[in-house]
């Protein structure tokens, strides 16, 4: 050993954080390296996680933790792609179809979208599952094909590959069983490390708030958004965030091919108002982060233009075709998988819609087979729920509240969950505001 230097010990790192002090970059890297190579046992890692949970981390510590997790594994090499690569991340949400819509929207504005995507776990599938509901669509591109397609079309989606952020995987699994998931510095570094490892130059975040979200209160959602924007600033990745409402599902459709249909309708300018609005908010930020617009107003103008003149829709068609899918679905969405049965769930009384439990509608869709509970389960791409009302809407007895698209599995459970979780009352209700915050 070098003279005068003692070896770093995990017990001292834990004690320092336990007592509320900031850890040095060296200490944070020692921890992350030890997690990655297995030299730090789970009990010590857990103790540090709990200390961070109670003591927090400052902006420098968070940035160091993020970069150390990036360095624990591979980085996707996207060199050779022209332009500023902007990635979008939504923190959870039910029936969130924004990724499918934003890809073509911002690509049509000239911002390259090189998307790596995974399968979903939970209420509906992930973006990959949704895209695979298009006949023939595949995500098995070579790295060369992927980059070539991004340069040519500005849009390509590839399956997850490589060993990205293994330290985050291990820490997340530990957090899950030690009640340390709900920690702002840990969530923020986890999300940001994955985006950076996947090659993002700039990041746009949609932090959901409300009953169906990870963060139930607006204040916590704001703290999370600020934490991620702060990390982005510290590590030189321009990061912009919005806080958006998830107290009810976004749009009307919850289910894989149903959401693809909703995405196509939105790209035609015929989508649900809330979904369209959120796509404009996020899309304009992606255009700004990608350096194609100087202000959010200019970005929004560009997004409206590619929506209105059909160029985003045309780009979606070319993208589907380039990845082997049936481009005819754009003009004939009925070519997408559909369910055998569509059952209407009617209102039992007159009144106003008081609430639509986003989590519960998501769970109801999962009972129909739209999502997986475990990662190897098969999902049914054609099933799901289409809402007919939003919070604040007036409703008459006998009017449809929702449609259940079923292939025979879980139908009764889904119907009773919908009845229970779309509540109707006499009092008029002001619809919740969609955008709750803008952090940059
Ligand atoms: N999502 C993530 O990727 N990481 C977290 O820590 C929480 C949610
Ligand atoms: Ca939806």
Automatic annotation (TrEMBL):
It comes from the Bacteria. Its EC number is 2.4.2.2. Gene3D superfamilies: Nucleoside phosphorylase/phosphoribosyltransferase catalytic domain (3.40.1030.10), Pyrimidine nucleoside phosphorylase-like, C-terminal domain (3.90.1170.30), Transferase, Pyrimidine Nucleoside Phosphorylase, Chain C (1.20.970.10). Homodimer. This is Pyrimidine-nucleoside phosphorylase. It is an enzyme of class 2 (transferase). GO terms for cellular component: cytosol. It comes from Edaphobacillus lindanitolerans.
